[in-house]
UniProtKB/TrEMBL annotation:
It comes from the Eukaryota. Residues 1-28 form the signal peptide. It is found in: Cell membrane. One of its GO terms (cellular component) is plasma membrane. It is a single-pass membrane protein. InterPro entries: Kinase-like_dom_sf (IPR011009), Leu-rich_rpt (IPR001611), LRR_dom_sf (IPR032675), Malectin-like_Carb-bd_dom (IPR024788), Prot_kinase_dom (IPR000719), Protein_kinase_ATP_BS (IPR017441), Ser-Thr/Tyr_kinase_cat_dom (IPR001245), Ser/Thr_kinase_AS (IPR008271). SUPFAM superfamilies: L domain-like (SSF52058), Protein kinase-like (PK-like) (SSF56112). The chain crosses the membrane at residues 556-578. This is non-specific serine/threonine protein kinase. The lineage of its organism: Eukaryota, Viridiplantae, Streptophyta, Embryophyta, Tracheophyta. Residues 629-904 form the Protein kinase domain. It comes from Triticum turgidum subsp. durum (Durum wheat). Keywords: ATP-binding, Kinase, Leucine-rich repeat, Membrane, Nucleotide-binding, Phosphoprotein, Receptor, Repeat, Serine/threonine-protein kinase, Signal, Transferase, Transmembrane, Transmembrane helix.
Length: 941
C-alpha cells in the first residue's frame, strides 16, 4: 500500500469526527457542581468563560466545564465565525490563548487525582483564526516537567488532538503550553481520564506513551467509538480500505481475557478487516516523526485480534506478524473466537524512517489474516526530575492562599529555565531540587502569614516585605533550620514575634527584619515595662521592653478593657510540683534551653519603632503526643486532668497539662487562661510555652520546673533534700519578689496574684524562682486606686491578708502580706501555720520570738548559722512590715525588691571577701533597721 496512511488519513477522519462530534455539545446546559466527575474524568472546554455554565455532551453524557478553575493564565477567545460549522461541537468554538512571549510557560493543574495513578491526558486544538492573524502557531506541550510533544497547527480548520498515557506522580497533573517563539500557544479543550495501573504496562513512572494512532478496523458506519462504549474514553478511529480489505463483524460480545492489559471495548473488537485477496497480507505503515526534542523516537505497536467467525473444524486462520520484516512471534498466530488477544513489541522500535507491519498467513492457514484494532505510540521518557514533593505542596498552598499570578504554574523549580519567578532553587545531582529562596516582596500579598512557608524545609531566604500581610507571625518559621533571613518590613502584621524566632535571632542564626508593621505587638500587650530603677544593681533588663510605638501609651494601655476579670481556674501546680521535683532529680542536668531566653526581651530598631512580645505556640494534639511520648509520664494530677512530662523537639523539657473530659474547667476558661498567661512574661513567672486546642483536646504547655516548689525545700519531709543556704534563699526571695512586682507594676491593669505562698514558688534546675499558679489572678485599676471587691475571699489560709478577709477589699497589698509570710518561712524554715503546740500563724510566732530579742531564735537552724545576721534582720524586719495589719503600712513589692537586692549584694560581697570563713552570727546590730511594731501584728485566727 502507498504512504503512511494512519497519520495521513487522520485529518480526514478528524474532519468526519467533527461532524459526528458536532452533535455532541449541543445538549442540555448543566450547572457546574464539581470539577472531577464521579468517573474521575476532567473535561475542560478551554476558553469557556469562568462563569459560564458547564454543559453535557449529548452522546457521551460527559460534562464539559470551563477551564478557568484549572489555570491562572491566558485569555478567552472565540474562533472566527467562518470556521464554525453547525454540527461542530461546542467545545471547539472558543480557545484560551497564552501571551507572554517566547519562553513563557502556562500550565493547567488537573486534579485532585489519585497520586501515582496512570492517566490519559488529551489536548485538543483548532485554531479557527481566533486571533485574526491567520497564522497557525507552533508550540510545545509539556506534561509535568517532561516535554510531551510539539503542537504543529497545520491550518485553521483542522482539529489536532494529542494524547498521552502517563503515570501522574503527584495528586495533580500539570499540562503546560510553552511558547517556543513560533506563535502564541492556545488550546481548545483538555481531557483527563484515569486508567488502572495494570493497563498499558509499557507505561510506567519513567515512561509515557504518546499516541500516534488508535484505529478500529472494519466499521462501516464511520462512528468514532469512545465513552460510554469505552469506559476509559479512548477515541477509536474507524479505518477501512474498501479496495483492499473486506469487513467482518459479529453481533456477539467479544470478551477481554482476565486481567487484560488493554481492555479494548467489545464494540471495537466486534469489527475487523481481512484481505479481499485471500493470499495478500494485511499491511500498514507509519512514518517516524523525529523532532528536535526526540530525534529518534521509539515506537510501540499494539495489535488487537479476535476471531469473529466460527470456523469449520478443518479450517485454520494462522498468520505471522512482522515489523519491518522481523518476525514478532516465533510462530504463527491464531486469534481466539470472541476473545481479545494483543500482540505488541515490548521493546520500542527505533532507527527507521518508516515502519511497516505485515500480517501474512502461514502455509497451513486456510483463511486469510484478520485485524480488529491497532494502537501505535511513541515512548516518552518521563524521567524529568521534579521539585521535592513537600516543597511543591508548600508552594501550591502559598500560591493558592495569596493568589499569586506571576508565572507560578507547573513545577516550581523545573525545568530550570521555567522556574517560578521570585524563587531560588537549589539543584543538586543527588536529590530533587528544593526551594531555598522566596522573594515575594511587593507582590500585593494580603491575609495572614501562611504557615505553609514553614513547609519549605530548605528555605534560607524569605522576603515578604512591602505587602499587606496581617495577623501574627507563625512560630513554625523558627523550625526552618536553614533560614538565615526573614524580611517582613512594611506589612500590617500584629501580635508578637514568636519566641522561637527570637531565640533564633538571639543565637545569631537568623536575621529578622520587621520594621513598619505598626500593629506588631501593640494589640496583644498586657504588661508594660518596669521603669528601670536607676540605683538598681540588677543589670538584667526587665523582661518586656516596649519601644516607642506609633500609638501613645494611652492608646496601648487604656484601650484594654479595664478590670477585665480574669477568672481562670487554679492550676494544680502544687501537685505538679511534688511530682516534678521527683522527676527533677534525675533531670537536673538537662539543659534548660528555653529558660531566660524564652522570656528575655528582645528588641530591634529597624525603621519603625518595634516592640517585641512573645506569643505562645499552638500545639496540635499529635505534637503533644510526640512531645510527651504518648502521654507516658504523669508528673501531676489536678482538677483539670493530668500533667505530663514532655520533651520538645529542641530538647526543652516541658510540663503538659491536658484537660480531661471530666474537668470542671470550661473550654472558654481554659482558653482564657491560656490567653492571659500568653500575655504575661517575666523571667520570674512560670511561663506558658504554648497551648493546644485541637478538636476536643485542650492542653497547656508550661516550662518545666525541675526543682519543684519552694515549700518542699524549706520544710520538706525528705531529709536527703539539701538545705538551702541563706544566699540561695535570698536569691529565691528576690526573684519571687520581682515576679510579683512585675504583676503589680508592670501590668496594666495591675494584676493581683491572690495566692502567693511557698508552694506556688517553683524552682527550676538552677534554683531560679518563678511564681506559678495564676489561677486566681485578678486585675484591678490602680490609677483610680479603687479596690476590687470580690464576692468571696479566696486564697490560702495562713497567707491571707486579714484586711482583705475582713473587708473583701482586694489590693496588691494583699499579695504583699502573703509575701511577708513567705519571707518568714524562708528565714525560719517553718510552715506558715505552726502546729505545735497549737495552730499558730508564723507571723505571730516570729513576732513573739523577736519581741524577746534574738534573731537566732527564729532563723532556720538547718543553715547552721551560715548567714549574715544583718541581712537576716533586714529581711525579718521587711517581712513583718509586709504583714502589718494596716495595708497602708505595708511596703510595696518594689520596696521589698530593693531591700532584697541590697541584702543579696551584702551577702555576695561578704561571701566573696570572707570566702570560706564561717561567721557565727549572733545578736547583730540593728542599725537603720526599723523596729517592728508588735501592736500592729496580726495573725490569722
Ligand atoms: C519503565 O519501563 C521501561 C521500559 O520497559 C524500563 O526500562 C524502566 O526501567 C521502567 N521503569 C520503572 C520505574 O519500572
Ligand atoms: C510476509 O511478509 C513479508 C514482508 O511483508 C514478505 O516479505 C513475505 O514474503 C511474506 N510472507 C508470506 C508467506 O507471504
Ligand atoms: C503445518 O502443519 C503441519 C502438519 O500438521 C505441521 O507439521 C507444521 O509444523 C505446521 N506448520 C506451521 C508453521 O505451523
Ligand atoms: C491593605 O489592606 C487594607 C485592608 O484591606 C486596604 O485598605 C489597603 O488599601 C491595603 N494596602 C495595600 C498597599 O494593598
Ligand atoms: C533608690 O532610688 C530611690 C529613688 O530613686 C530612693 O528612694 C532609694 O532610696 C534608692 N535606694 C537605694 C538602695 O539607694
Amino acid at each position: 500500500m502507498e504512504g503512511p496512511w494512519p497519520r495521513a488519513m487522520a485529518a480526514w477522519w478528524w474532519w468526519m469526527s467533527l461532524l459526528l462530534l458536532g452533535i455532541a455539545g449541543c445538549g442540555g446546559v448543566l450547572q457546574v457542581h464539581g470539577q472531577v466527575d464521579n468517573l474521575g474524568f476532567i473535561s475542560l472546554d478551554c476558553g469557556l468563560p469562568e462563569n459560564a455554565a458547564g454543559y453535557v455532551d449529548s452522546t457521551t453524557k460527559l460534562r464539559f466545564t470551563s477551564d478557568a478553575g484549572f489555570i491562572n493564565a491566558g485569555t478567552n477567545h472565540n474562533m472566527s465565525s467562518e470556521y464554525i460549522t453547525p454540527l461542530m461541537g461546542k467545545s471547539w468554538h472558543n480557545v484560551r490563548s497564552f501571551g507572554g512571549g517566547a519562553g513563557a510557560r502556562s500550565c493547567y493543574t488537573l486534579g485532585p487525582l489519585v497520586a501515582g495513578l496512570k492517566h490519559l491526558v488529551r489536548a485538543k486544538f483548532m485554531y479557527g483564526n481566533y486571533d485574526g492573524l491567520n497564522k497557525a502557531p507552533v508550540f510545545d506541550l509539556h506534561v509535568g516537567v517532561n516535554y510531551w510533544t510539539t503542537v504543529n497547527i497545520s491550518n485553521a480548520n483542522t482539529p489536532e488532538i494529542y494524547e498521552i498515557i502517563a503515570v501522574v506522580p503527584g495528586d495533580s497533573a500539570e499540562v503546560c503550553l510553552v511558547n517556543t517563539g513560533s506563535g502564541t500557544p492556545f488550546i481548545s479543550a483538555l481531557d483527563l481520564r484515569p486508567l488502572e495501573n495494570g493497563l498499558y504496562p509499557m507505561s510506567n513512572s519513567t515512561q509515557g506513551l504518546v499516541l500516534l494512532t488508535r484505529s478500529n478496523f472494519g466499521p462501516t458506519d464511520g462512528v468514532i467509538l469512545r465513552y460510554p462504549d469505552d469506559p476509559h474514553d479512548r477515541f477509536w478511529i474507524p479505518q477501512s480500505k474498501p479496495t483492499e480489505w473486506s469487513e467482518i463483524s459479529t453481533a456477539k460480545r467479544v470478551h477481554n481475557m482476565e486481567g487484560s492489559s488493554f481492555d479494548v471495548p467489545s464494540a471495537v473488537m466486534q469489527t475487523a478487516v481481512t484481505p479481499i485477496n485471500s493470499s495478500s497480507p494485511i499491511q500498514f505503515t507509519w512514518d517516524a516523526e523525529p523532532s528536535a526534542n526526540v530525534p529518534d523516537p521509539g515506537y510501540i505497536c499494539i495489535l488487537h485480534f479476535s476471531e469473529l467467525q466460527p470456523l469449520p473444524v478443518n479450517a485454520l486462520r494462522q498468520f505471522y506478524v512482522t515489523l519491518n520484516g522481523q518476525l514478532w512471534l516465533g510462530k504463527g498466530l491464531t486469534p481466539q473466537y470472541l476473545y481479545t488477544n494483543a500482540v505488541f513489541n515490548g521493546i520500542p522500535s527505533h532507527g527507521s524512517h518508516q515502519y511497516n507491519v505485515s500480517l501474512n498467513a502461514t502455509t497451513n492457514s486456510t483463511v486469510p489474516p484478520i485485524l480488529n484494532a491497532i494502537e501505535i505510540f511513541s515512548v516518552l521518557p518521563t524521567t524529568g526530575i521534579t521539585t521535592a514533593t513537600q516543597d511543591v505542596s508548600a508552594m501550591a498552598a502559598i500560591r493558592g492562599m495569596y493568589k499569586v499570578k506571576k508565572n507560578w504554574m507547573g513545577d516550581p523549580c523545573m525545568p530550570k529555565n521555567f522556574a517560578w519567578k521570585g524563587l531560588g532553587c537549589s539543584y543538586t545531582v543527588s536529590s530533587p531540587p528544593i526551594v531555598t529562596g522566596l522573594n515575594l516582596s511587593s507582590s500585593g500579598l494580603s491575609g495572614n502569614l501562611s504557615s505553609s512557608f514553614a513547609g519549605l524545609k530548605g528555605l534560607q531566604y524569605l522576603d515578604l516585605s512591602r505587602n499587606n500581610l496581617t495577623g501574627s507571625i507563625p512560630d513554625t518559621l523558627s523550625q526552618l533550620s536553614s533560614l538565615t533571613l526573614i524580611d517582613l518590613t512594611d506589612n500590617q502584621l500584629n501580635g508578637s514575634i514568636p519566641p522561637g524566632l527570637v531565640k533564633r535571632t538571639q543565637d545569631g542564626s537568623l536575621t529578622l527584619r520587621y520594621g513598619n508593621n505598626p500593629n506588631l505587638c501593640s494589640s496583644g500587650n498586657y504588661c508594660r515595662p518596669l521603669e528601670k530603677q536607676k540605683n538598681s544593681t540588677d543589670t538584667r533588663s526587665p523582661s518586656v521592653i516596649i519601644m516607642d510605638s506609633p500609638l501613645s501609651q494611652t492608646d496601648i494601655y487604656y484601650g484594654i478593657p479595664m478590670v477585665a476579670v480574669l477568672v481562670i481556674l487554679v492550676l494544680s501546680v502544687v501537685i505538679l510540683c511534688i511530682k516534678m521535683r521527683r522527676q527533677g532529680r534525675t533531670s537536673n542536668n538537662i539543659k534548660r534551653q528555653n529558660e531566660a531566653s524564652i522570656t528575655r526581651s528582645h528588641s530591634q530598631n529597624n525603621k519603625g519603632h518595634i516592640s517585641l512580645r512573645f506569643d505562645n505556640r499552638r500545639f496540635t494534639y499529635s505534637e503533644l503526643v510526640a512531645i510527651t511520648n504518648g502521654f507516658q509520664q504523669v508528673i501531676g494530677r489536678g482538677g483539670f486532668g493530668k500533667v505530663y512530662q514532655g520533651l520538645m523537639e529542641d530538647g526543652t523539657q516541658v510540663a503538659v497539662k491536658l484537660r480531661s473530659e471530666s474537668s470542671d474547667q470550661g473550654e472558654q476558661e481554659f482558653l482564657a487562661e491560656a490567653q492571659t498567661l500568653a500575655k504575661i512574661h517575666h523571667k520570674n513567672l512560670v511561663s506558658l510555652i504554648g497551648y493546644c486546642k485541637d478538636r476536643e483536646y485542650m492542653a497547656l504547655v508550661y516550662e518545666y520546673m525541675a526543682q519543684g516548689a519552694l515549700d518542699e525545700h524549706l520544710n520538706g519531709k525528705d531529709n536527703n533534700q539539701s538545705i538551702l543556704t541563706w544566699r540561695q534563699r535570698l536569691r529565691i526571695a528576690l526573684e519571687s519578689a520581682q515576679g510579683l512586682e512585675y504583676l503589680h507594676k508592670g501590668c496594666n491593669p495591675p494584676l493581683i496574684h491572690r495566692d502567693v505562698k511557698t508552694s506556688n514558688i517553683l524552682l527550676n534546675a538552677n534554683l531560679e524562682a518563678k511564681i506559678a499558679d495564676f489561677g486566681l489572678l485578678k486585675a484591678f485599676n490602680s490609677n483610680s486606686d479603687t479596690h476590687v471587691s470580690s464576692a468571696r475571699v479566696v486564697g490560702t489560709l495562713g497567707y491571707l491578708d486579714p484586711e482583705y478577709q475582713a473587708t473583701f477589699q482586694l489590693t496588691n497589698k494583699s499579695d504583699v502580706f502573703s509575701f511577708g509570710v513567705v519571707l518568714l518561712e524562708i528565714i525560719t524554715g517553718q510552715r506558715h501555720i505552726l502546729k505545735d503546740p497549737e495552730p499558730t500563724s508564723i507571723v505571730q510566732w516570729v513576732r513573739q520570738r523577736l519581741a524577746c530579742g534574738s534573731i537566732e531564735g527564729v532563723v532556720d537552724t538547718r543553715m547552721h548559722g551560715d548567714h549574715n545576721v544583718n541581712s537576716v534582720w533586714k529581711i525579718a524586719d521587711t517581712a513583718l512590715k509586709c504583714t502589718a495589719h494596716n495595708p497602708m503600712q505595708r511596703p510595696t513589692m518594689t520596696d521589698v525588691v530593693a531591700v532584697l537586692q541590697d541584702c543579696l549584694e551584702i551577702e555576695v560581697a561578704h561571701n566573696d571577701v570572707n570566702a570560706g570563713i564561717y561567721l557565727a552570727g549572733s545578736g547583730g546590730d540593728m542599725n537603720g533597721y526599723g523596729r517592728y511594731d508588735i501592736d500592729t501584728s496580726s495573725g490569722v485566727s
